Amino acid sequence: MRFASVAFPLFLAALLGLWAILPRRARPWLLLLASAAFYLCAGLGGIVFLAGVILLSWGAGLLLRREQEKQKAQIEEEAPDRARKKEIRAVFTRRKKRILRCALGILLLDLFLVKYLDFVIRGGASLFGADPASFPGLGIIVPLGISYFTFSAIGYLIDVFRGTCGAEKNPARLALFLSFFPIISQGPICRYGDLSETLFEGENLKGENLSRGAMRIAWGYFKKIVLADRLAPAIAAIFADPSGAGGMATAAAILMYTFRLYFDFTGGIDITIGVGELFGIRLPENFNLPYFSGSLKEYWRRWHITMCSWFRDYLFYPVSTSGFMTKLSGKIRTRVGPKAAGRVVLYVSSFLVWAATGIWHGAGMNFLVWGLCNWAVLMISEELEPLYKRFHDRFGFRGKAWRVFMILRTFLLVAMLNLFDCFDGVGGTFGAAAALFAPWDPGKLALTGLEIKDILILLFGGALVFAVSLIRTKVPDLRGAIARRGTVACWAVIFGFTLAVLLLGAYGIGYDQSAFIYNRF
Amino acid sequence: MEELLAMLSDLHPEVDFTAENDLIGDGILDSMDIVNLISGIADTFDVTITARDIIPENFRSADSIMALIRRLEEEG
Predict the structure, then answer these.
(1) Is A246 within 8 Å of A435 (Cβ atoms)?
(2) Is the pLDDT assigned to residue A148 strictly greater than 80?
(3) Domain boundary among A204, A219, A247
(4) In the structure, what pLDDT confidence band is assigned to residue A37 with cuts at 50, 70 and 90?
(5) Do A329 and B40 touch (CB under 8 A)?
(6) Do A301 and B30 touch (CB under 8 A)?
(7) How many domains, chain A?
(8) What's the predicted TM-score (pTM) here?
(9) Domain that holds residue A29
(10) Alpha carbon A458 to chain centroid distance?
(11) ipTM of this predicted complex?
């Protein structure tokens, strides 16, 4: 079942009806059943896999908890001095590390086998001179949302290991956390400690939550069905043959793809967060006006926030503070100096993070290259920071016009990097980039297949999204401001956007309720 | 404390670290700054900050970073 299918609003309505009549303590069970039903629609194999991940996480969490309790009991029993206490802690930390490594190893191996084995075999075949295209693949069906629930499970286990959240004794609660239907297909990637605050509450339906949630859902559908899905066939038409389409049409498709990605992903997350709000469940924000970023570094603080913070907390920091890195930086510090040591730690750790971020997005060389291009730009920017500063001090470029220039520059950079996402291989991306230098023929824009009506809807809709974004820079809680104007204002917004989706949605011949782009990650 | 303030000022000379109370929330320290800071702290104070210590509460202000260093010194 997809968010953009007719079945989803009906599913949601039935769920709200049952939620209202069930007692509070039964409601989390209802959510679990609904999540299982939602997931079953994606196939039986997937749910078996998901159940395995849930059981493994639950069992490993309990083992970690048992070691923590034993450590506490031994310290209380012995009442040791500081040295002995340190010794006891070290023994139990080693034990807990073994449990954690074992569980994470299984989770990552599962992810590798299901999602990446074909890619590795094809890569290996091409290394030995065979044609990778001749390998038919293992035919493994990738379970829906595998990257999201695997990463959530890894985060949960590391948090239990670190003691930042307690191990969950009830497997059903952990199952709900890992399978919660709004988040399973495209995130946001949640932390157990945060989500568990509201996920199991079974809060009564409230007018405020319903109107806020419905506003967010309607806005999300507007961005997805009216704007993103209208752009999708136009982009596909150009990217089918960029060299034939020429420079102007390819440039237009690159820009359209960047907007589509934004409408699609933020629209999907709006629907997700809105669904959570209907039930009084607070989900983390995943975006903070990313296309208003003045640099790539800032962009990655504002785009897919939960994924970035996951990589930061569970990969970047552990790698950069690991024993290996400490030794390496120690050697460099004594031989070259402290600044060089800091740089090496930063370069190596962030290289690993960006390679992993690329591969997380998909099993393909294009995603790896995309990740490493991001890394290269970020590191070059870091190195040039003193130069930028001297430039600004000398010429004083700091005003609003400069900020707008920086935003446009960052937007174009992101658009070019996103090109790696549009083609199966790196070759296709470079082919499209090369097509930018082909003759710019405005007549080729007709290849997009967009009619005047489509262009007007896209311009008006895009302007509306831009205006809302600008307002949100001054009024972050825009829905709160609308709610304060009264119930009529809230429901006018909901009704208006629902009507827009029904009347202006990109339906028609060939419409296939396009899956969200981030579903495939 | 002076050594820590000097390290922080090296990273962001424009910030008054004695007055700032939300270095993470205000976006002053990012992950790259924190890695550089940890490297400097290891050199100066001879303590190892591990990934589990890198939580916003420990890096909210110069005082909270100093409290973390003192705690790690005590734990040996």
Answers:
(1) yes
(2) yes
(3) A204
(4) very high
(5) no
(6) yes
(7) 2
(8) 0.88
(9) 7-204
(10) 25
(11) 0.81
